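Working notes for the structural subgroup meeting. M.R. asked for a predicted model of this chain before we commit to crystallization trials. I am recording the input and output together here so anyone reviewing the notebook later can reproduce the run.

Input as submitted:
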Amino acid sequence: MRRDDYAKAIEDQGFKLVYNPPGDGNCQFAALSHQTKRLGILRSPETMRKEIVEYLKSSLYKSDGFPLLKHLADDEFACWDDYITHMARDGTYRDQITPYAAANLCNIDIQIISSLGVDGQHLFSPLASVSAATVYLGHFAENQGEQYVSLEQVADHNDASGKEYDANDPGEGEISED
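Returned structure, recorded in token form:
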């Protein structure tokens, strides 16, 4: 598949790509920075990473007591401090913990639209309150180039199967305990 095919998969879900940051390991933070700027949250990608890492330093567990470190594959990090040190480095690829932290830090819903289709979507919501807004990030899946992009919602439309898709329906999501 070509990159255009991945973008088409995102478009078929009711979104269009509005910003494609450099693929330098900082793309999730850059796409998030682009999205939050529309809400008046003015942070550079570097500042966004720094603030998310600071938030995570004090957020070792989800509200249900489940350790966030358990969401990472293959016990890559021996302890939470190792993860925090790793994630603080410029160019370190992000994971599913960082949008969870960003949703809580910025009090927003973060809807991830995947190139894998509707079943690959995830919604990250703040735990302590109702979100102030929703931002949309696209994700080209690992086997499809691994990249986060900034998206804009398009009016309701039909997906490739002809089934009507409601762009306001976020689908399922949150950090899973797989």
